[in-house]
């Protein structure tokens, strides 16, 4: 955190009752530009800043704009954007800031996540009038939303339109066992075994600049389906929450006794914890089964998607196709066919919101004021 972020941000975020969820499509963007080859140029939502950024600056010298990074569990939110009679991320933040400054404020998010979608780091901006010696960093955090970073920015800096890149993560759990209670609403559990190499090959088809009409929800209002997907990959990671297995604890003890003993790579550890049935006994001769009550770990995959902007539901539709490839329902050539069809009807069912996380929003930030 920067120096002015060292002071903690607003009054405790109050808990709201759970309200029905609703998804809000993206706002209509400007008409797509066309280059010399008559190919639609990717519509960047930042073009809308003429409507929101160029408004006259408030002459009040006590008004300061802050950029705020927040994390939240999206399960009990009806989305990020303000909605009537719904509990939303912006609604909770605006209520908290109003209690802090004593007057209404407007908060603008960089990314308007849907109901049930989580954020490791979403970014907003807010204008706060310094009417007391209290700092906007004095907001206490709690519940299912938390301010994780804050920075002063110029009055014309817009959290949404100044964003250069957005990164999303999607968590998949693979295995026939029921998903753990600790993973409820935090990942998409699929009973099938997923083929990681096949999914990675499918990513190679989708990454780059394409017409993503097949991965665009019907409610999307963007005028152009052209997007540049800078990164799309699938990685197998250790399932969480993670606790050391018997063999790992034994290896750790061996290292303490003999530093020359190697624990091996992290990959070896995750493989052991995910696939082994160590400590099992057949229970014969009256012996107790040592693995009774121990849950077998699922395989955990994370899909990473990175681009300047995304179409409405694009990431979840991409994950739906990748999962179908991993499960053997589609082939890599099928993915190319779906992309070229340029129709949402060609795509696989969309992945649920619960596994999606907004991971990071990238900016070219000005020097700290």
Automatic annotation (TrEMBL):
It catalyses: uridine(38/39/40) in tRNA = pseudouridine(38/39/40) in tRNA. Transmembrane segments: none annotated. Keywords: Isomerase, tRNA processing. GO terms for biological process: tRNA pseudouridine synthesis. Its EC number is 5.4.99.12. Residues 68-161, 202-364 form the Pseudouridine synthase I TruA alpha/beta domain. InterPro entries: PsdUridine_synth_cat_dom_sf, PsdUridine_synth_TruA, PsdUridine_synth_TruA_a/b_dom, PsdUridine_synth_TruA_C, TruA/RsuA/RluB/E/F_N. It comes from the Eukaryota. GO terms for molecular function: RNA binding; tRNA pseudouridine(38-40) synthase activity. Residues 1-32, 258-285 are annotated as: Disordered. It holds the Pfam family PseudoU_synth_1. Residues 13-26 have a biased composition (Basic and acidic residues). Belongs to the tRNA pseudouridine synthase TruA family. This is tRNA pseudouridine synthase.
